[in-house]
TrEMBL record:
GO terms for molecular function: oxidoreductase activity. This is Nitroreductase. Belongs to the nitroreductase family. Keywords: Oxidoreductase.
Amino acid sequence: MSQKSDEYINFILTRRSIRKFKDIPIDMNLIKRILDVARYAPSAGNRQPWIFIVVKDIEVKERLAKIHRWAYPLEKAPLGIVVACNKDISPDSYHVDCANATMYIMFAAHALGLGTVWLQTLRNIEDIQKILGLPSNYIPIAMLAIGYPDESPSAKNRKPLEEIAFLDRYGNPFK
């Protein structure tokens, strides 16, 4: 492997879920750049069924932060991004398509010195649609709290590769 490859792998491995943010506004040009990167995420048939809603309004952030107990980081974050997918454009793959776009957002933010945390949405679809005025065919796949990190979490333990990787069929160890 080259030094560049090692840098890329290290970049991926150093991204963390950030739940505490500094009280520093984010330049909207950075957000525009992040969303521009997200447009290049892979999607089935290149349908690109996503939309991105940048949430800066304090009241809207508070409402979204209260949809479930784990959404609280959004309240104190400078802003949030909701990734929603049009299920009519990509009915069989919109979940995966928008998950890809969400990861592109998270990696672009990490590259620009910002932190993110993925806040689940799938148990609160109608609540989020109502808060954001989303039509019923737009399904919120992810909410991200985003800002300059005010914490440095260490890496969490991961399952050993032997438990999760197989060769040719389940149960056949990948060696």
